[in-house]
Design a protein that fits this description.
Elements (H helix, E strand, L loop, with lengths): L1 E9 L2 E7 L4 E5 L6 H11 L16 E8 L2 H12 L11 E8 L4 E5 L2 E3 L1 H11 E4 L1 H6 L3 H11 L3 H27 L3 H17 L5 H13 L1 H17 L4 H16 L3 H31 L4 H20 L4 H19 L1 H47 L6 E12 L2 E10 L7 E2 H4 L2 H15 L7 E5 L7 H14 L4 E5 L3 H4 L4 E10 L2 E8 L4 H7 L6
Parallel strand pairs: 3-13, 3-14, 8-12, 12-13
Antiparallel strand pairs: 1-2, 1-4, 4-5, 5-6, 6-7, 9-10, 10-11, 14-15
């Protein structure tokens, strides 16, 4: 239940704090006094759309806060929901503190002083409060809304969830089939893919092969120049007269002669010279080995160029690198495999579609059977409650017509209504007046009181367009509903207001050049009830 609400700088309300009763709370006051502002503040607290134009003129921000005590049956649900967003919630006391702060540029939302999104605030608020205004009453005319209320009355959520889950699986399957068909190659493309696979597999490229071939080709193409230079260098190093090796031999011998004079100093130099001789000899052999490697016969050279040309053709046709060629090959193989398996895949899709369609049909049939039973119980309950609020000769009958199986089942449901004895039953949407709608909605809410876990119900002018004895009965019905749920209601009727457990009056006044609305709890309601009845004295 909502324990209290604090409002600051919201429209005509500069400051207000209202403490509510667990039962039937009523708000009265002259037209334009600010009752709708109060209901708007409650709606805003529970995640309703913020209107920054409602910030009181001259104020930097508006703030609305409220404390709820969550009933035990809802605490585990809320604990799981809030824990997912790291919001602290003490399940032992069940208290939740909501706060919204509106500035001209933004609206900030809090649950237990933790910043939250407006969406989470609204989702949490929907578990705590059920709000009904004129728009909600009009929604009762829609068959889809009537079906939703029927499912709530019959606690058919689990049956409906099975339909929704199966329908969602069927939708996912249809999307999978559509994607498969869209990406599946036709015969012409399959022929082209076969040529691609055959073309690449025939050459059978190896990663890095092109770079290696290009290096070998450069050597082979310049072999004459390399061989000539290598021969010249080898001769200069070792073979010709007065070669570098000969000159190093002379240097080494002279150092060895000097070594006899000063062994300690010259021995390292002799050793170094011998190392240089060995290096020159090794360099000469390496040059000769290089020359031996690049000597390709014409046949080998032609084969090398042919291989390079084949790789170049593939890269020009399909991809700029061998790695990408291999990716193209793999993709083509996969698409060809999909094409060749398409008949079997379509059979598998057909089998899965049939299984899900049959499963959905079974769930819809089970839901329909439960709805038929729930509808009979609901109509009986509604007629009893309608009689209590003035419909002594009313008739109400459910009508089911089959529809295609879907997430909501396979039923089109509509209530047929006759307000007076002897009148023809007609769809509710065609005959109910606004006053009748108000009472029918009240009958629904009282019938749903045991089925719903929502602890607080808000009625905005549920007694609109009624009066007399009917008003007495509506007041008694709200009083009775208040024994099971907390009720917040605006009323213009003294008969209704007199049944409240707690009575608040909303008043408008001026001070200086400003207009204000205030909310007062009445300890003595006689004066206000008299005003509502035309200032009759009690």
């Amino acid at each position: 239940m909502l324990n209290f609400i604090k409002i600051r700088n919201y429209a005509l309300i500069e400051s207000a704090e209202v403490e509510f009763s667990p039962g039937f709370n009523v708000f009265t006051g002259e037209s334009g006094a600010g009752k709708s502002i109060l209901m708007s503040a409650v709606d805003l607290l529970l995640g309703g759309r913020s209107d920054r134009g409602a910030i009181r003129s001259g104020s930097a921000c508006a703030e609305i806060a409220g404390m709820f005590t969550v009933p035990a049956a809802l605490r585990r649900t809320l604990l799981d929901k809030l824990a997912a967003s790291d919001i602290a919630f003490d399940e032992s006391d069940g208290e939740l503190y909501f706060r919204r702060v509106m500035t001209p540029s933004a609206t900030r939302n809090y649950i237990n002083d933790t910043p939250v999104s407006a969406r989470l605030l609204a989702e949490t608020g929907a578990l705590l409060m059920d709000r009904h205004g004129v728009g909600e009453q009009l929604s009762l005319l829609q068959p889809s809304r009537q079906l939703e209320l029927l499912d709530r009355f019959g606690s058919l959520g689990p049956f409906r969830n099975k339909c929704a889950e199966t329908a969602a699986a069927l939708t996912r399957l249809e999307e999978e089939i559509s994607s498969f068909e869209e990406t599946l190659p036709d015969e012409s493309e399959a022929d082209r893919l076969s040529l691609v696979v055959e073309d690449i597999e025939r050459v059978d490229p190896v990663p890095g092969e092109d770079a290696e071939l290009e290096a070998r080709h450069r050597l082979a193409a310049n072999s004459r120049e390399i061989l000539s230079t290598a021969s010249c260098l080898s001769a200069r190093l070792y073979d010709e007269e007065n070669s570098i090796a000969d000159q190093l031999g002379t240097v080494c011998r002279q150092l060895q002669d000097l070594e006899k004079i000063d062994e300690k100093s010259l021995s390292p130099l002799v050793a170094h010279c011998v190392e240089i001789q060995d290096s020159v000899s090794e360099l000469s052999r390496s040059i000769q080995d290089l020359a031996g490697k690049i000597e390709l016969d014409p046949g080998e050279f032609a084969a090398l160029e042919e291989r390079m040309a084949a790789l170049h053709t593939l890269k020009r046709r399909y991809a700029p690198t061998i790695e990408m060629l291999l990716e193209t090959l793999e993709a083509a193989r996969k698409r060809l495999d999909d094409f060749r398996r398409s008949a079997a895949q379509r059979e598998e899709f057909s089998r899965r579609r049939k299984a899900l369609t049959e499963e959905l049909s079974r769930h819809c049939q089970a839901l329909s059977q439960e709805r038929q039973k729930a509808a009979r119980a609901l109509v009986k309950e509604l007629l009893q409650r309608l009689e209590l609020i003035g419909f002594t000769g009313a008739r109400l009958e459910p009508e089911f017509t089959p529809s295609s199986p879907s997430a909501n089942g396979s039923d089109h449901f509509e209530l047929f209504f006759s307000a007076n004895k002897g009148e023809e039953l007609r769809p509710l949407r065609k005959i109910a007046s606004s006053g009748e709608l108000s009472r029918i909605m009240l009958a629904f809410k009282t019938a749903l009181a045991d089925a719903d876990a929502v602890p607080t119900v808000v009625f905005d002018e549920i007694d609109m367009n009624i009066g007399g004895e009917t008003a007495n009965k509506v007041g008694e019905a709200l009083k009775l509903l208040g024994e099971k749920r907390q009720i917040l209601s605006i009323s213009h009727l003294a008969q209704v207001a007199s049944c409240a457990d707690r009575h608040f009056v909303v008043e408008k006044f001026t001070s200086g050049d400003r207009t204000y609305s205030q909310v007062r709890q009445l300890t003595d309601t006689r004066s206000e009830l008299g005003r509502m009845m035309g200032n009759l004295k009690f």
